[in-house]
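Posting this for the archive.
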Amino acid sequence: MHRSVFKRLMSALKETASNKSFGGYQKVFTHDSVSLKCKMTFGLYLPPNCDTKKVPVIYWLSGLTCNEQNFMTKAGAQQYASKYNVMLVMPDTSPRGVNIPGEDDSYDFGSGAGFYVDATQEPWKSHYNMYTYVTSELPEIINSNFPADPDQQSIMGHSMGGHGALISFLKNPGKYKSVSAFAAICNPMECDWGKKAFSGYLGEDKTSWAEYDATKLVSTYNGPPIDIFLDQGSNDQFLEALRPQTFVEACKEAQVPVILTMRDGYDHSYFYIATFIEEHFKHHAKFLGISPS
């Protein structure tokens, strides 16, 4: 979508919450989305002193059933965003209230389950364009309204959002400086969540599915050198569906550097994310060229 279309949204941003945190401000905004054709909400952490210069940005993508609040309130990430002087952007996980029949019938399809794809099937394709939203529309809003450095952005996520972070990074060589993921759905074409979402949003042609599967995408990656950081709990109740080892094998075959760190005894929850979120900030800091204050 053309930048001028997105820019028409700028005056419509509405701040709905603002709380001081670790010297900066945790805010929430709503706006009317062009790509999703509905009102959307995102969380934004502005670190201290960002009014004096542009700062790097890290996008966080959340998982199934989540919205902009989960990471914002449970991960404890603001202290590290403040420490490294980076902006955090936390979008919702799907369009909301678009009145598509069945959109609220299950936790893993429809509301709260946009899967970060651009739908091609009726009735979803008019609204369920989360890939365009998180990779194009939202960054344009952030870069045009806040002191974000558009050349210094990274992306991370959890579960469905880990899938979203990986595909956003792999499909846009050079757009993001780094990527990391907690408990990512690494090979959605081969798990029940992905099969349900992709068949509903994309149809039955699996060649279109491969365009949103990190394990498939990494095999054809052609861009700047990358170093992928995967984080996984050994006691994750969804480990079989997440398929991190399959992704690691694909990375090895493609000669793409990947680090898979297994966390003994940890599960799929935000207790696990909060325990190790600082390591992800350290990973991104290396590639963003920043140091803790």
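Residues 1-11 have pLDDT under 50 and may be disordered. The longest helix spans residues 270-288.
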